[in-house]
Amino acid sequence: MTLSPEPVLPPAPLTPDSFAATFESLAGAISKIVVGQEHVVEEVLVALFAKGHVLIEGVPGLGKTLLVRALSRALSCSFKRIQFTPDLMPSDVTGGNIFDSRENRFQFVQGPVFTQLLLADEVNRAPAKTQAALLEAMQERQVTIDGVERALPRPFITLATQNPIESQGTYALPEAQLDRFLFKLVIKYPEAEIEKQILKLHLAGLDPADFARVGLEPVLDEAGVLAMQLFAESVRVDEAVLDYIVRLVGATRSHRSVFLGASPRASVALVGASRVRAAAEGRDFVVPDDVKDHAASVLRHRLSLHPDAELEGVTTEDVIEALLKEVPVPRSAA
Amino acid sequence: MRTSAESMRPVGWVERSAAHRRGALAAGVRDGLRYVPPILLVALISCAHKVPPKPHSETVDAAAKRVLHAKAYLFCHQNKLPIYPWDQGWCDIAKRATTCPELVAMCARKVPCDHGLFSSSKAKANACVADEKKKPKTNVGAGNSAGTPWYERIKLPGLQYLAWIALGLVLALVAFFVVRAILNRQPQVALDAPVPGAAPAVVAVIEDRGLGEVARLLRRARELAESDVGLALAHLYAAALKHLEEAGLIRWDRTTTNREYVRTIRGKTPIDRPVAELVREVERTKFGHLAPARQTFETLYSRLAPALARGAVLVLLLLATFTSGCGSCEGNPGLDGHAAFTDVLRSQGLEVGSFEMPIDKLSGRDVPVIVDSGDFDFDATVLSALERAMLSGARILVLLAKGVDLPTWPRLKVIDTAAGPLAVDDALAQAGHLPAKAAAYLPDKLALASPKTERDSPEVLVERDGKPFAERWRSQDGEIVFVADRRLIQNASLAVPGNARLAVALAEEIAGPKKAIQFAELGPIFPASSPVDSLERAGLWALVLQALLVLALLVVARGRAFGALRDHESTTRRAFAEHVSALGVQLARRRGSRLAASLYASYALDRLRHRASREAGRDLDALAKDLAPRLGEDEGDVRRLLNDAEGMRMEPNGISVPERDLVLVRRLGQVLWRLQGERGAGHG
Description:
Chain A has helices at residues 16-33, 38-49, 64-75, 91-94, 128-140, 175-178, 192-203, 222-232, 239-254, 264-280, 288-299, 307-311, 316-326, and strands spanning 54-57, 79-83, 95-100, 105-110, 117-121, 142-145, 148-151, 157-162, 183-186, 258-260, 304-305. By secondary structure, chain A is an alpha/beta fold. A 5-stranded parallel β-sheet of chain A has the order 2-5-8-1-9. A two-stranded antiparallel sheet of chain A has the order 3-4. In chain A, strands 6-7 form a two-stranded antiparallel sheet.
């Protein structure tokens, strides 16, 4: 991947307005390539600035890989891709110590996880052992090999794609790993009009290896990303909003259709995502709408439903929607 | 920063501070008192015409004179009205109608011939004037049609309602567009501009009158702006929400966020942008802990308050619509109406009401009733109903009309007779302060004629020229008084001194000691021929048109949101096939193909044994030997299949190999299907 020598937008000093402007230009640039998926693009950016990871679910051919490639181009960050297969080994992900016969010692060879943007393509095609290799990288942003901890470059974000669970040859991701994804996004087939725009884009010569040809230029560099991540952490969260988040996440644990509710990590994720959303809208404080906007993305992969509820056709989206209609929001009180 | 408990408290329209709550009781009482005047006003308007006047000690003649003195009785006062053909009979007694001297002048005028009221040329020649030049020159008015309002010259009576409705709609639309234009006018000050000097006048008006929750919140916001701008903004926002909910644009819900409201109203109301700015400021205060500027409040207040106050005005408008136009609904004040008679009866202490049930529902338990034959198709059905009512104890005064002929009971006929004074029964004369020879004059000289028998022995109350004018029929408890001329109780009749006394005396005779009487409003029940006929019979046209006017006003006020269908939660049931599919998905997710195959193998083996010969029993080898020739397959293959199925049945918890499991299930299914076909063929 060729890095852009001079990013367009300087990272500092940041204000809510400049954060929002940068966010908007970044989303706009990527949406030029990933047509009709504006919501997904925004969610991915929110996860990026919230220091989270994203699990994207959708059938092949909906532009998941294109999205990550376009993101890496717009961010001027390093990008690597791992195609998960049933015979993929953990060391294929993390790297390992290889004996150098000339030096007569073991030398560490980095795996593809040592990057800033990691695309774990079709992550549910690998067995659990290999999937678990990503756990430490995603949570600690480091990997431990032969007792040696090796830090990953910053920023680091994993964008994993998976096919729907009903597809043949897939392995369900373990709950522990699912919980480490900030968001789970679902990409559906585009509407006819959007698909037509995609065709026009390809007629214009879209080439994932040469985004400059279709006008996608770098918008931000890694320093800018880190600065925006830092700014997002300064966004104020009122106690009433915190209470709302706690009540919302807590409600998932007592819902009649839910077998396993969301963990406190989900609450943390919701706070982080809401902060970025607030900053992206030019605010330095979180409002309940920020929480509501991200509730589905944060919670949908963290809930396990009772089998009888699933048999009745209840989905996690149904449960989340019902909870959003049950839990009162904090309102305007001065 | 607020304390946790305080800031986390769920709120309704607005959270109130401790200082605010301290004066809540006093403020509530004060606010409640402010609502009293408008409520009383509306109540008085709607009820005024229903309040009966207090009985006093005036004589019947004086009461009739006082009643007809009211401007509503135009025939007594209007000097420009012509006399219509069907009313010309009254002209015969006009000179005796000393209470209404204008009746003479009225009889001197005729309707113009182009009025459209005349069906024949002969009638036209007698009852109308051809043009202005032929009009009789009287000293009471210049012209006929020139003096008649335009709406009264419309030929079809129903069009008058439509004309008024159309006029009202036009006025309402004009008012709406004017108000909207005012609201859409952008304020001259920006958000950070200096504080405006004073709130708009309309706000002051609404505040002063204390109309509704919105106005109360606005007033409270204005008060709080002096001390706590943040709380004032919250009140202003609460007023906006209340207004939007009343306008049908939002549905307030505790799980709906402020910005969701903003998105909901976007493009649907002129105040969508000010509300969005208000929400931003409110949330900056609440969640951003930023102190709002006073000038921000003033700017938003000046932009929002007039629009919010409009809602209160609308409420008044609707109330006025409901209560207006009904000030004189109790009777017709025309020449042939009963309104004056009703008032005169009340002046004599009688309680007058309406019997609004079909006449066949009348019984002895009801208050005595006056039945005007002109209001009914007076046929055998009605008479039968009246007779039944009388036998059950009802007391009824029936006023007949010229031409009435009743061949069945009571076999009465209204006939013309020679002119002569009405001779009143002694008892009636005494009770009604009437002379034995009543000085009553009616246009027609009518009397009753009936063949008397032993069984029919009515009591004559009033007679004319030796023939009964009013006679009473009694049963054990009830009674009916038949009066020959229904005009006796009509408004114009009361203009003749003496008529009123006779009419009141007859009514009091029927009313009895309870001094209560009611007019029958409905005839017997017959199915309406059409919805229009139904409305016509029920007298609901005015109400329907008024309701349409209200709907039109609501549409104008609320715009597209009014009457819009709302989504409702569908409660569809899943089909059995969907359940099976979902179950299959569940099994596939949990690597449960082995379990599924095991269950199916159990089922298949059971069915195969059922269909095999009895000699086969439970032995798989024997079963294979029995099935192989029937299936046309090698016995070894069949034995292998059965062994696999038995193994699958015995170990449902083994390792799942979806492809292998599926092959077995399909193979068993094919065998079952073929055997089923064989069985079907065997059965022919």
